[in-house]
Known about the structure:
alpha/beta; five-stranded mixed β-sheet
Amino acid sequence: MIKDYSKLQNGSDIRGIAIDGVEGEKVNLDREAAERIGAAFVKWLAKRKGVNADSLFVAAGRDPRVSGPALMEGLMRGFGSQGCRTCDFGLASTPAMFMATVFEDFACDGTVMITASHLPYNRNGFKFFTRDGGLDKGDIREILIIAGEEEVPQDVVITDSEKADIIGPYAEHLRKIIIDGVNDGDRPLEGMKITVDAGNGSGGFYASEVLAPLGADVSSGLYLEPDGMFPNHQPNPENKDAMAAISSGVLNAKADFGLIFDTDVDRSAAVDGNGREIARDGIVAMAAALIAEDYPGSTVVTDSITGRQLTEFIEKKLGLKHLRFRRGYRNVINKAIELNEKGTDSQLAIETSGHGAFKENYFLDDGAYLAAKVVIKAALLHREGKSIDSVLEGLEYPAEEKEIRIPVKGEDFGEYADKVLKELEDYAAGEEGLSLEEPNYEGVRINFGDFGWCLLRKSLHDPIMPLNIASDKTGGCEEIREILMRFLSKYDRLDTEV
Length: 498
């Protein structure tokens, strides 16, 4: 039976409703879909490599979501139906699944991570890797077409999958990075207290298998046990409750600093010893500072919603260059790769969401690797009697920030949003006191004199137009919002009562 799985595509990932439990959200990513997608991935991979499917080694891992085991069974059946060697890594992280293609002990031809990042417990999805990195949108589209056209025969004989641990080797890899970076013996974190908040996702290993063996006191860890219902807070460094939890945890424990991960550990953020967040623009600034000495003049590629103060810090304080590009971690990473291919050095691609990818680490968005870089710097500073917040000395922040998500009603929301953006651009270009940001690669970014800015863009997948506002004066965000809403109120398909 031919099926249409196109709606499961979420950029370069697959996302869907995996279990019942939320009213109005019907399951569309079930075991059958996993079987078909698993088989399609192997077919796609064999075609791409120009080999027979039975010569491939394909593996999968999962975050702790309650739907993970069933989807793993489906994937493994789909992989196995193509005659290839398969491996179930069990609980894993997204970066570890990429490294399974790199580590000599595994050398997988392709891997899949079963995760929906920070989304609610009823959601799940797949992220795909080859030795060249994560798949792009076109690859996902092709895999879903194949999955819809050919189902897995129910009478096929499938060999049992191998079982293996990937987190152990990955943790060992991270420990070596920290040991080499600090260059102070096998326990370079002695005397340091570090609070880790895993949000009941996959990241608890970072405390027990990375930091503790290096001498760190990790006794103040929060929500390190995997729990696919995420009972404490959303495992998301962009979530206010999550950041409040890690901030309080650091202060209560009198820790040197804290680290927080999202569910599948491809994103991270930090908190200094005073409980202050190093997130959003702060984590971008931190990551940039960590490469500045070794790569002077390198271009840092970020997403579109970063602020003026961050640009000043990157360019004037650190001596780097800042390219503000588009939202979407693959967009940011691909732009950095493109710059390097064209002869412009770019060592870092990072979103304010905490997706940070270093050239030296395969341009893999790896929250644990970013955390390791922070830990190395913190350890070196600790020996000098300094704290991690000293790295961000000189970084300023806007007085206010706000994001408003404006719903777009009706069909073909993308075309309607494009019309709104074009007319807003024309309006801003001719309005006294306003100026368009140039260059700009996403939506319409408007400067309001010297006190603030806004960016209106369209969501790639949802009928939403996000509006980001930042102001350097108290009350400025509301002033900017009122100007924008007066303009947008004439569009009957926009719900501006938000």
